[in-house]
Amino acid sequence: MAEKKNYYEILGVEKGASADEIKSAYRKLAMKYHPDRNQGNAEAAERFKEINEAHETLSDQQKRAAYDYELEHPGMGGMGGFGGGGFGGFEDIFSNIFGGGFGGFGGARSAQSEVGEDIRKEMTLSFMDAAKGCTKTFSYMRNEPCSACGSTGAKDGTAYSTCTRCQGKGVVQTVQNTMFGRTIRQSVCPECSGLGRVIKEKCPECKGKGSQRKETEVTINIPAGVDKDSYMRKRGYGQAAPRGGQAGDLIITFRIEPHKLFVRDGFDLIVDLPISFKIAALGGTVKVPAIDDAFEFTIPEGTQSGQVFTVRGKGIRSARGNTGNLILRVFVEVPTKLSREQRRNIEKLYDGVELKQYEKMKKYSDNVESFYGKKPFSK
Predict the structure, then answer these.
(1) Are 261 and 287 in contact (CB under 8 A)?
(2) pLDDT digits (tens, 9 = 90+) for 318-337
(3) Strands 231-234 and 250-256: what pairing?
(4) Residues 253, 122: contact at Cβ < 8 Å?
(5) Are 141 and 250 in contact (CB under 8 A)?
(6) Rounded to whole angstroms, how far apart are CA atoms 242 and 145?
(7) Residue-wise pLDDT tens digits, 352-370
(8) Is the model's pTM score more than 0.70?
(9) Neighbouring C-beta atoms of residue 105, cutoff 10 Å
(10) Rounded CA gap, 51 and 41, in Å?
(11) Do 257 and 126 form a contact (C-beta atoms < 8 A)?
């Protein structure tokens, strides 16, 4: 039999960790091993799968109780592991899981606090704001936790009375006699939804809902280097949770506007740099745009159109302090209109180099002919 996975070790929490501690650990690990951040990494994908599996079990109170029992009693997870006493082990097992015998479930048991839904928003940033980082303030509508009652729905947050159906335990039990013996079923109390108490007097501000529909304003500090489909999470700025639970999160996904000069590749910047025929042939210094300012760059003589130069450390700086490169793609601008004197000067210039150029073209033509069986550019 395969060894039982230890979900607590997977999430890096103690066995007695609270629901909030489990949720916090899960979110940190899920963000770290998310497939979008680890594309092509099979080990990270498997780790992400384990993290989700652990969270699914430990975030559900009943699943966690059953799991804890299996963890403490290896081999007792199925019918075959109950031993020679037939099905008489049912009572002991349920007693361990639910904290008491069939006569009661031990002390009062409150349901796990609920968590509000996340809200997803999309924000468009200019190219420079995304590259350099910025601060943005915007408004949106949400169910905001009621400050008057602490989102409990009860007046002053304390106007409660003990639930008469579950006697404050938060759970109800049903005992049945079957052909296999006596069994028990436990479920969340439908009267109080697992709280163990009911509202005696509703909050006058939210009318017992625990939340109010309001416009919420939020300010976020966007770090340098965010890219398309990057996202940020603002804790507690999502929808309010019922019965005083934790509010959900605000998740902001970014869209980046294109730039007139720059094309982005990760943290590298690509610039198409036009140079004159003269500078391409003789070399020279040109002004080059960068993310912060322009600087002078020396073009070597004999530079060909399409040649690429890399200037290190002139790209986008990431939030971690790393900086990308500036990639210069050179193209030579050929004049389209020439005066007679300019034409004569160019012809005169090429009198000395035309023979070498002809020899290169002839060699190229001979190579193509030997490969394809015909001359290039022939009619």
Answers:
(1) no
(2) 877 788 999 999 999 887 88
(3) antiparallel
(4) yes
(5) no
(6) 9
(7) 555 555 555 556 556 555 5
(8) no
(9) 22
(10) 15
(11) yes
